[in-house]
Specification:
This protein is mainly α. Helices cover about 80% and strands about 0% of the residues. The longest helix has 29 residues. The two termini are about 15 Å apart.
Amino acid sequence: METIAAWLAATAASEVIQKVFWIIPVTQTIHILTVAMVFSSVVMIELRVLGITKSQTIEDVAHRYVPWIFIGVVVLAVTGSILIVGEPMRSLPSYEFQMKMLYLAFALAFTIAFSRSVQHHAPVWQTAGGGGAGTQVASRTLVNVLALAALLSWCMVVMYGRWIAYTVVH
């Protein structure tokens, strides 16, 4: 990974990003604000799935917040790529960056699976996630475990992402 990072650091794009003083701070600001948007959307979904909030159906909550997650992930990919190109030695070889990418894969897998499941099986989600009298204990437990795993995955993405900023560059 260090070889790729060294090659990337020597590219013209990396040099421009490093030399133009405002690119990295503006990109980081957009990246962090988008992280807040995505994480807030995830929390709103998981609060509903866990049955903590019940003012809307799970289908309505998914319809409202999942698009913000996917739009945010695109913005994060663009801004994250700019940050990586601008400072490849800080991110690519670091353990924190690699862990962030691993947890991001888990978080996205949970989000995509949830989104598709709600689209195709909304009535099942209403029963399993609604906390109603018809809810089976096993399905409710599974839904809660998956919701907590998804939330934990997104928390780890945020934590490792912030940790990259404090990693010592070798």
